[in-house]
Amino acid sequence: MVIISSILILIISFFIFTGTPVFLKNYSRIKIFCSEIAGPVLKVFGKPVEGMKYVFNNYINLIDTKKENNALKKRIGELELENQKIHNLEEENRRLKSILKITEKNPGNYMVARVIGEDVKNWFKCIIIDKGRDDGLKEKLPVITPKGIVGQVVEVSKWHSKVMTIGDVNSSVDVNVEGRDTRGILEGTDHNVLRLKYITKNDEIEVGDKLITSGKDGIYPKGIPVGIVIAINKNKAGIFYDIEVMPYNNFKRLEEVIVVKRR
Amino acid sequence: MKLYTCILLGIIFSVFESSLLSFIPAEFLKPDVTIPFIIYITFFTTPHAGLITSIVMGIIQEVLSTSPNGSIIFSKVLIFLLALFFKNKLYIDSRYSFSYICAGAVVCESIIYILLSWLAKGETKHIENVIFFMLPNAVFTGFIAIFIFSFVEFLNIKFFNKD
């Protein structure tokens, strides 16, 4: 009986995977229901993360400096922690100021969201933010930071949303090379570096060139910084260069992001 | 009771992994915390409980991931079926043998995902990445499985009295 049920579930999940509408529709309802339960739990779990983050960034990194003597070690530790705390506050202040600079230009167009989690599988590159359908988010909205582009919203639930970063292998961004008449498609590789495609060998491009969004992909607004060209393989066979790009954002270190609600 | 506890622990660990590990800049440190629970329940309780665990864990992982709909449930249920098949062929005599089986299950899960993507959609984009993380995920899941096994056994002795 269990084996028959298992095989039945395998068949159903296979149909869901292949996108068969009847199965997909019902499954989406179940998934949305589960997402709506998971949302508040993620937010609750996100709170101790702040404390853990603080401990990880400050205390654990300082362990090596605390080997002298106990009293001195404790004092140094306390001072360092205090110092780091001020440094962190300054850093946070600077970050929030730069976000505010963007959002106060057109307050209705932007929404600041906090990153509360990331993809539980390292096969995919996605982050989870604490704003959802209730805050007016919907799929395909671009997500940025003052440094540059992050990705796009791919799944929205009541409390939270999933953002596919531009580092994901399924992500493509139409980009221009700043100051040059060169345009290409930037694709994720699932690693830190991105790949710029369809730049022909007679296009102008050099290592160190900055990339900005072209606005022609219908998702990302024009002129947002994306990354910098770090390597060009000019010896590759074919008509296109093989170009590597380093994004401005480190997707593992994001704390706040801006969702562009109106392009 | 043991089933509900394992499911609850699996959910808590998954949410914890998603929110807490997001700030650690190490891609390799991402064990599949649901696999040890599926293996444990399948090997030490009824097949019915194993099936329920694998479905719930699959849904939870899909909620916390951008994986294609149905893919994780498919692989988890197939892992459950494999575990059920090997239940009388493999003998778990310690936490270490349990950890080897969990590591093997992670490798199987990656292969199942690759085959599913390939056969169903002709989708090959993620394959390189799945292969890249297959061994680190297996090793780290095996490592975590030692602690999960000890913890569940502790709960088992303390509260469930080996029911």
Distance between the termini of chain A: 53 Å
- Using only CA atoms, what is the Rg of chain A? 22 Å
Number of helices of chain B: 6
Runs of chain B in which pLDDT lies below 50 for 5 or more consecutive residues are none
Task: Tell me the number of helical segments of chain A per DSSP (H or I, 4 or more residues long).
Answer: 3
Strand content of chain A: 25-35%
> Got a strand count of chain B?
0
Mean pLDDT of chain B: 84
Helix residue percentage of chain A: 25-40%
Helix content range of the residues of chain B, please? over 70%
Radius of gyration of chain B: 15 Å
Keyphrases for this structure?
heterodimer; A: 263 residues; alpha+beta; six-stranded antiparallel β-barrel; 26% strand; B: 163 residues; mainly alpha; 6 helices
Description:
The complex is a heterodimer of chains A (263) and B (163). With 263 residues, chain A is of the alpha+beta class. In chain A, 34% of the residues lie in helices and 26% in strands. In chain A, strands 1-2-5-4-3-12 form a six-stranded antiparallel beta barrel. Chain A has a six-stranded antiparallel barrel with strand order 6-7-8-11-10-9. The mean pLDDT of chain A is 82. Chain B has one domain (2-20, 33-156). Chain B is 76% helix and 0% strand. Chain B has six helices and no strands. Chain B has helices spanning 2-20, 34-44, 47-63, 71-86, 95-121, 127-160. Classes of the chains: A alpha+beta (263), B mainly alpha (163). At the A-B interface, helix 1, helix 2, strand 1 and strand 2 of A face helix 1, helix 3, helix 4, helix 5 and helix 6 of B.
List the helices and strands and how they pair.
The complex is a heterodimer of chains A (263) and B (163).
Chain A: H1 2-17, H2 21-59, H3 70-103, E1 110-118, E2 126-129, E3 142-144, E4 149-156, E5 161-165, E6 172-177, E7 183-187, E8 194-197, E9 210-213, E10 225-233, E11 242-247, E12 256-260
Antiparallel strand pairs in A: 1-2, 1-12, 2-5, 3-4, 3-12, 4-5, 6-7, 6-9, 7-8, 8-11, 9-10, 10-11
Helix pairs in contact in A: 1-2
Chain B: H1 2-20, H2 34-44, H3 47-63, H4 71-86, H5 95-121, H6 127-160
Helix pairs in contact in B: 1-3, 2-3, 2-4, 2-5, 2-6, 3-4, 4-5, 5-6
